[in-house]
Write a structure and sequence with these properties.
- This protein is mainly α.
- It has one domain.
- It is built from 4 helices and no strands.
- It is globular and about 50 Å long.
- The model has no long low-confidence stretch (mean pLDDT 90).
Length: 124
């Protein structure tokens, strides 16, 4: 039971933190002079969510491709609901490019984790 909490609770807490952040009209963003810093933040934020969800679903030794698929579906659904939620927050909107950045972060992390997990299991 403790192991389940150890693996699953961080994903739930982080998802709640993303919801809280989406409820704010303005959030401080880094200014690197690129013009797309917010997209980088979206990719990183949802990449971390994807890693936490992958980790949460990886108990005990599941089929990796199934875990990647389920994690991708859950995270993308959450990203979509996050953008929809933001459309009701004053000063925020539904942004398709933010959703694309979320999806890119999710895909990069889960792609890496899928390859890493398969390599680890075939070597061990």
């Amino acid at each position: 039971m403790l192991a389940v909490l150890w693996y699953r609770l961080p994903a739930v807490v982080y998802a709640a933190a993303l919801y809280w952040a989406s409820s704010k009209s303005r959030l401080p963003l880094p200014r690197w002079g690129l013009g797309f810093e917010d997209k980088i933040v979206h990719a990183l934020a949802f990449g971390l969510l994807a890693w936490l969800v992958f980790r949460a679903l990886s108990l005990p030794r599941p089929i990796v491709s199934r875990v990647v698929a389920v994690a991708a579906l859950l995270c993308f659904a959450y990203a979509l609901s996050d953008e929809w939620h933001q459309s009701y927050v004053p000063g925020r909107t539904f942004d398709l490019w933010d959703l694309c950045a979320d999806a890119a972060g999710i895909a990069l992390v889960l792609g890496f984790e899928g390859v890493r997990a398969r390599a680890t299991r075939s070597n061990g």
